[in-house]
TrEMBL record:
Gene transcribed to yield this protein: xylA
Family named by the database record: Belongs to the xylose isomerase family.
Binding positions (Mg(2+) 2): E268, H271, D307, D309
Subunit structure: Homotetramer.
Major site of localization recorded for this protein: cytoplasm
Cofactor needs: Mg(2+)
SUPFAM superfamilies, A to Z: Xylose isomerase-like
Protein name per the record: Xylose isomerase
Cofactor, free-text remark: Binds 2 magnesium ions per subunit.
Gene Ontology terms: cellular component: cytoplasm
Enzyme active site: H101, D104
Length: 438
């Protein structure tokens, strides 16, 4: 089969002064930042579902992009054509990872046994394409939200039959993830939540979700899966309220049900927006709990109230996100572009422009985040802000060597405390601008 993207060259780094639309301006994979190359800091991944499947269809109109790749959609020939196109795409961009849902890879059959046979066939085909390349699987997952059977969720369903069907999908998706050498496995609870509280037994549903996850962990470990399991928090959409509302909620759930040793967070920027958090907030919450695992790299539109999955272009957000990643010591997973082209951007060229934009945005964010850390003003300010806990009664509080009585006696002798030191927010924002634009 010939090239799908023959008009598009291999994408190279040309530097920030380049005007070549098919060149990286900031992503120089071999450039060293804080002791590691950009490629090591930024293990980028292609989302199979958006890049090879999303054609621009929305609730108001038909698709605009042709993602048939020369074959009739809904056939195994089309599934193989997507593999060929995907590997050509990743090679031209220098992307080393991909992510998938089970039914991104093959059309779902009416009989799960036939779907599984198709998954075996396509995963054999992917393995052949991987040979002789350095392209790997970042993570896999099962689509347990699209089919009508999951109208009430998968782990949270009220049907034992549907629950078992979901378990079968998870088992097969884990099999394929291990077969392809995946570094992680994701649970995105697309419909694990509720629409109406009066017809919902919340405790019952959450216990069943946790049980499904425990079974997945046990099975995954039994077949040699050594990677992390991930939860991808999202507060709403498609359900009105989803149980993995945000990172803090998901972490609490994992600890409550004894899953915290096997699971980490897969944080999506747009989902943070929907939860009315910043991207960096969700990364910080995950990191301080030892659960920052992987990232879905996209952005939302603050003027719209749904999951727009735009390619990231906001360098402020990327810088603050990479600041959190660097401070936490990096990811066990990677940066998956769970992003799709805007509906009017429907050409093959647009697919490449989008990934160049996203990769350059995070590369520039990495550069600037490292400069923020090396600049030292933010770290020095934060250290000084809490300096009263470095000696005297403050140190005793931190060392847990004081009592409520002793703290009270200290306050009574003091009579009245001075105001705490200024937060200096405007100064720190100026530092951020100074580093970003120097």
């Amino acid at each position: 089969m010939g090239e799908f993207f023959s008009a598009i060259p291999e994408i190279k780094y040309e530097g920030k002064n380049s005007t070549n639309p098919f060149a990286f301006k900031y992503y120089d994979k071999d450039r060293k930042i804080m002791g590691k190359t950009m490629e090591e800091h930024l293990p980028f991944a292609m989302a199979w579902w958006h890049n090879l499947g999303a054609n621009g269809v929305d609730m108001f109109g038909q698709g605009t992009a042709d993602k048939s790749f020369g074959q009739a959609p809904g056939t195994m020939e089309h599934a193989k054509a997507k593999v060929d196109a995907g590997f050509e795409f990743m090679k031209k961009l220098g992307i080393k990872y991909f992510c998938f849902h089970d039914i991104d890879l093959v059309p779902e059959a009416d009989d799960i046994n036939e779907t599984n046979r198709r998954l075996d066939e396509i995963s054999d085909y992917i393995l052949e394409k991987m040979k002789g390349t350095d392209i790997k699987c970042l993570w896999g997952t099962a689509n347990m939200f699209g089919n009508p059977r999951y109208m009430n969720g998968a782990g949270s369903t009220n049907s034992a039959d549907v629950y078992c069907f979901a378990a079968a999908q998870v088992k097969k998706a884990l099999d394929i993830t291990v077969k392809l050498g995946g570094r992680g496995y994701v649970f995105w609870g697309g419909r694990e939540g509720y629409e109406f509280l009066l017809n919902t037994d919340m405790k019952f549903e959450q216990e069943n979700i946790a049980n499904l996850m425990h079974m997945a962990v046990d099975y995954g470990r039994s077949i040699g899966f050594k990677g992390d399991f991930y939860i991808e928090p999202k507060p709403k959409e498609p359900m009105k309220h989803q149980y993995d509302f945000d990172a803090a909620t998901a972490i609490g759930f994992l600890r409550q049900y004894g899953l915290d040793k096997d699971f980490k967070m897969n944080i999506e920027a747009n989902h943070a927006t929907l939860a009315q958090h910043t991207f960096e907030h969700e990364l910080r919450v995950s990191a301080i709990n030892g659960m920052l695992g992987s990232i879905d790299a996209n952005q939302g539109d603050p003027l719209l109230g749904w999951d727009t999955d735009e390619f990231p272009c906001n360098v402020y957000d990327a810088t603050l996100a990479m600041y959190e990643v660097l401070k936490s010591g990096g990811l066990t997973g990677g940066f998956n572009f769970d992003s799709k082209n805007r509906r009017p951007s429907y050409t093959y060229e647009d697919m490449f422009h989008a990934f160049i934009l996203g990769m350059d945005t995070f590369a520039l964010g990495l550069i600037k985040a490292a400069e923020l850390i090396e600049d030292g003003r933010i770290d020095n300010f934060v250290k000084e802000k809490y300096s009263s806990f470095q000696e005297g009664i403050g140190k005793k509080i931190r060392d847990k060597s004081t009592t409520l009585q002793e703290c009270s006696d200290y306050a009574l002798k003091m009579k009245k405390p001075e105001l705490p030191g200024s937060g200096r927010q405007e100064y720190l924002e100026a530092v951020l601008n100074n580093v970003l634009f120097k």
